[in-house]
Design goal:
This protein has five helices and eight strands; from the N terminus they run E-H-E-H-H-E-H-E-E-E-E-H-E. It has 174 residues and is an alpha+beta fold.
Length: 174
């Protein structure tokens, strides 16, 4: 049964083997991210040589989990031509990769024959799914977790189908 989710940091801290994330939106309106998006629009780009200026505490959580042996993969299904927000994500993805994430991109037109859940999700150790809910304008509305075997299986298999088709970040061009 779906239930309210504990903090994401707790879910990742309890993860032992794998955490996969499927993103299917072309825009997220996250107030915490708004200053970084505004700076990007003004021409600022993360400095590869200044790790201290990168997105914290997210990248620290990722690095810590990866150092414990957790494999973290993120797949993004994107419309093409890409949105301005997707360009922002793309330009900053090297920081996620430096922290230990593996990231791939799948053009939406190549996902038409895949069965996908209706919402973005994280799947932890193939045992628990955290769904994220967003408004039509991309505003975060909340999340919940679900540990039903059939839901976990659906999400895990959907992620793997996307991952198998998706293009690794170092080869994807926008």
């Amino acid at each position: 049964m779906p239930q309210s989710a504990p903090p994401f940091s707790e879910l990742l801290a309890n993860c032992q083997h794998s955490a996969v994330h499927l993103e299917m939106r072309d825009f997220y309106d996250d107030p915490d991210e708004a200053p970084r998006v505004a700076a990007w629009k003004a021409g600022h780009r993360p400095d590869p040589n200044d790790r201290a200026s990168w997105w914290r505490p997210w990248l620290d959580m990722v690095s810590e989990a990866v150092s414990r042996g957790v494999v973290i993969r993120r797949a993004r299904i994107v419309s093409e031509p890409v949105s301005e927000y997707t360009r922002y994500l793309y330009d900053g993805t090297f920081t996620n990769i430096a922290a230990g994430e593996q990231i791939r991109w799948l053009p939406r037109r190549n996902a038409s024959d895949l069965a996908l859940p209706g919402n973005d999700f994280w799947c932890f150790d193939d045992r628990l799914v955290r769904f994220g809910y967003f408004s039509g304008e991309g505003v975060y509305l909340g999340d919940e977790v679900d540990d039903r075997a059939e839901v976990v299986k659906l999400c895990a298999s959907a992620f793997e189908a996307v991952w198998d088709r998706a293009i690794p970040h170092d080869r994807y061009r926008i």
